[in-house]
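Exercise 7b. Backbone tokens:
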């Protein structure tokens, strides 16, 4: 299943979805949270941290998936 067309499609779709969600959050949330003042800034910083964590977790999952593919099943999944 490694490096098949389905695997590539899943990779590209998840990459586009993650980038789109993060871009929308970074675009719209500062506008929506502006009325909170300094509390809105804190909330926006927290949301940026959560978005960064989600992207990092996806990258770790991707690297793990690649290592399983290159290991040709020697690693226990």
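Sequence design result:
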């Amino acid at each position: 299943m490694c490096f098949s067309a389905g695997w590539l499609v899943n990779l590209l779709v998840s990459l586009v979805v993650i980038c789109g969600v993060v871009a929308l959050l970074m675009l719209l949330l500062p506008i929506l949270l502006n009325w909170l003042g300094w509390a809105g800034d804190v909330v926006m910083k927290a949301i940026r941290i959560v978005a960064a964590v989600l992207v990092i977790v996806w990258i770790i999952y991707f690297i793990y998936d690649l290592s399983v593919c290159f290991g040709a099943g020697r690693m226990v999944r």
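Instructor comment: The chain has two helices and no strands. Residues 5-71 form one domain.
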